[in-house]
Amino acid sequence: MKLEKYDLVKIFLLSRKLERSQGNVRMAIKLYWRLMLYLTKIIERTVYRFRIDTKGHKILNFGCGTHLIRGLNSDLFPVHRYFRGLKKPDVFLTGTFVPPRLDGFFEAIICEHVLEHLFPHDAFTLLCNFRRMLQPGGFLQISVPSIIRLLDCKGDTHSFDVISVNNIIYNYQHHFMYDESSLVSLLTAAGFHSIMPNSFESSAWKPYLTREREPESIYILARNSQ
Q: How much is the pTM?
């Protein structure tokens, strides 16, 4: 087995970062995002129940963060962006509720690095609601961080960066790490079909994806069976 040499300074820096993220700072961040989720749910169930401006876009970028595409960009209600004057999403969606206007509306949904922030039972609910929002035969392009790529296991030797593995599992408010099989199982249970792993380069939705995430990501494409 190949043994890697590590810079202890890097390990200790990550250790301190994880310690802070699992203490008071993590609690504050968790409470903040709970508030954002709560505010977004209110918007979904009141304002969006009667009216939602889709701006004519038929492609939904769910959980867009700072990556805005030429489509309908959605995220939780971003109080911090208002204060900092940053670009905001077009609409505010949690994925726990489907506004009537969005039922069967989209031709495609892009969901990059979102599912790992959810426990599998919540991810399943989100996928079911994605299916409701898609037109019959509509596409869902998903990507999540890949532990397999980081481990890079080859035969008898193991060559991987343990710092990166710990960082991706325990940092960024991640709750559950997926592989291709678990994602395919969730998508199948949610009612999708023609489910297949793809890649950044082979995806028909490549112009809407974040290139910087390609080296660390798993990609799955699925279609709505309705």
A: 0.85
